[in-house]
Amino acid sequence: MAIIFFTVSGGPYGLEPLIAYAGQHGALLLLLVTPLLWDVPAIFTVLELNSMMPVNGGYYKWVKHALGTRWGFYEGWWTWLYTFVDLAIYPGLFVLYASFFFPALMDYRIPICLCVIWASAGLNILGIVPVGRTSLALGAVVLIPFVLLFVLFFYHHTGHIIIASPSLKGMPFPALGMALYTVMWNCLGWDNVTTYAGEVEKPVRSYLVSIFASFALVIVLYFLVILVAQQSGIDAGILKDKGFPVVGALVSGQWLGGLIAFAGMASSLGIYAAVLLSVSRVPKVMADDDLLPAKLNYLHPRFQTPYISIIVCSLVVSLMILWPFADLLIIDVTVYGAGLSLEYISLIKLRVSSPGTHRPFKIPLGVPALCVALVLPVTVYFAALAGAFYSTGQAVWAAVFAVVVLATAELVWRVIVWRKPFLKS
């Protein structure tokens, strides 16, 4: 549960721009509606497919089994690239929250980010158990300051909470797109936690309990922290730039702001380690299938972890930390959503082609109802993407870059087939 929490969320850090984009009337509405449309279909899809095939490689194996090698490669390639982008966000967030204590650290952003990247690489080489134990400890560090924030806020404001009427009226379409991207990014990654299912005891039951518990924790945490931020009266621009530590300082002084900033540092470390654990298993299983260089599937002689894959991932992320947060967020969600769509198609395809296959967990819907239900996350995805294209400046270029990244899958596939014609089948 701790690893899933950090893979998907790691706390509300990164949610700070939501009020600036959505306004007082739209923030809580989008925070409640978007996960229902975006996350719930993904969670149920992941649980059903993982119950059928609880193996290392997760979503890559599902898509390859359902749609063939070509689409399996697309899935693995897109997810590999999106995770590089995702990982590049967290070292920067670590520096941002560390600067609450020492503002001068922003001048040393790059070397500090590199330290975070390679320390996490070393931890991942040690194996899944050390990562899990570290995630558990960091999870407590992340949650305790927010529990204190909620308790102190509601103790001092009992009977004085006024929630703005929920509405999206008057919100510019580009702002709606960025608000959707913000919520979607803070709630993505449920499929990533299945790439190491072969290393988990009783994977069907473990994932069922842990994913539902994590989802409930994430939504409650997000709702309460945005509610408190709104009620604190903080300016949306200041919240976007300086983060939740400023809210803590407003509610109960610098000591609470310091705790939340420290928790932000812990969150960044925990998310990075958990996501690296996930993505490092994908190139290994793709290399096993001759879709990537064979050296990527080498295991560490002592720890039996894909250490070459971990090192390669860390090298690429080290080159991507120069991108600004907003651009990384757009690229991240756009590429991730394309891969997620292949998982939805795989779910439908396996329902039609393999109806008798044992599914310890099965979504209680028939194929037509599933098709209708899966329209919801696809609609949210294209609404966010359209909002980015309607924007001006960097957001448009980030969206264009994301589409180009998606197109590289076909180019690389052509090269692979040219070198290994037997993969056409």
Helix-strand string = HHHHHHHHHHHHHHH
The overall strand count is 0
Q: What integer is the average pLDDT?
A: 85
Query: Helical amount among residues, as a percent range?
Result: over 70%
Ranges with pLDDT <50 over ≥5 residues?
A: none
**Distance N terminus to C terminus?**
38 Å
Tally of separate domains: 1
CATH superfamily descriptor: Amino acid/polyamine transporter I
Number of helices: 15
Structural class call reads mainly alpha
What would you say this structure looks like, in words?
The chain is mainly alpha-helical and 425 residues long. It has a single domain, classed as Amino acid/polyamine transporter I (Up-down Bundle), CATH 1.20.1740. Helices cover 74% and strands 0% of the residues. The protein is globular. The model has no long low-confidence stretch (mean pLDDT 85).
Features:
425 residues, mainly alpha, Amino acid/polyamine transporter I, 15 helices, 74% helix, 0% strand, globular
Fold blueprint:
Layout: H1 2-8, H2 18-52, H3 59-67, H4 69-98, H5 109-126, H6 128-156, H7 173-185, H8 203-232, H9 236-242, H10 244-252, H11 254-288, H12 307-320, H13 325-353, H14 367-390, H15 394-419
